[in-house]
Amino acid sequence: MPQAGEKVCLGIDPGRDKTGLALVDATGKVLLVETVPTQKAMERVVGLLSEHSADLIAMGDGTTSRQMADMVRQIVPELPLELVDEKNSTLEARSLYWEINPPTGLKKILPEGLRFPDVPLDGYAAAVQARRYFAKKTDDPAS
User: Fold this and answer.
1) Which domain holds residue 59?
2) 8 Å CB contact between 22 and 134
3) What pTM was computed for the model?
4) Is residue 114 assigned to a domain?
5) Structurally, how many domains does the chain consist of?
6) What CATH number is given to the structural domain containing 89?
7) DSSP characters for 58-87?
8) 37 contact partners, CB below 8 Å, separation of at least 6
9) What's the rounded Cα separation, in Å, for the pair 75 and 6?
């Protein structure tokens, strides 16, 4: 877990059926990734925030984000919520998956574009949202 004073972001990648959740520290280190049914997402957000410390929430601005952002603001009004451009986040999530879970066996010799993870990528896409938030803050400290 992060050191004292280090910011942690809860990333959320909302979807119609599945929602990705991730905890990422300010260095970009992925601390946790999960994919949950969307109807259980708010319950799990509350659970994660009671189990782990987070300083803010970064959410992808795509599918169902407006409705989910409204729910998040009602459930955890004390945490800032930032919407993040989620364009191409699924492709980035696939790369992140392989970064965290290096391929083994025959998958090792396949080009990355031909490798497909055996798990849903929604949680990794949530990590991408959090990383993008931190990258934006690094690039533009005034924002």
Assistant:
1) 8-137
2) no
3) 0.88
4) yes
5) 1
6) 3.30.420.140
7) EEESSTTHHHHHHHHHHH-TTS-EEEE--T
8) 17, 18, 19
9) 24
DSSP three-state, residue 20: strand
Does residue 104 lie within any of the structural domains? yes
User: Rounded to the nearest 5°, which phi and psi values hold at 122?
Assistant: -55, -40
Nearest residue to 1 (alpha-carbon basis) of 66, 72, 51, 74 = 51
143 occurs within a structural domain:
no
- Half-sphere CA count of 47, side-chain side, radius 13 A: 9
Burial class of residue 17, CB neighbours in 10 A (0-12, 13-18, 19+): exposed
- Measure the CA–CA gap between 91 and 61, rounded to whole angstroms: 16
The answer to whether residue 84 is domain-embedded is yes
In order of 8, 94, 113, the CA distances from 44 in angstroms are 17, 23, 32
pLDDT by position in tens, the chain (length 143): 444 456 999 999 999 999 999 999 999 999 999 999 999 999 999 999 999 999 999 999 987 899 999 999 999 999 999 999 999 998 899 999 999 999 988 888 888 778 888 899 999 999 999 999 999 877 665 55
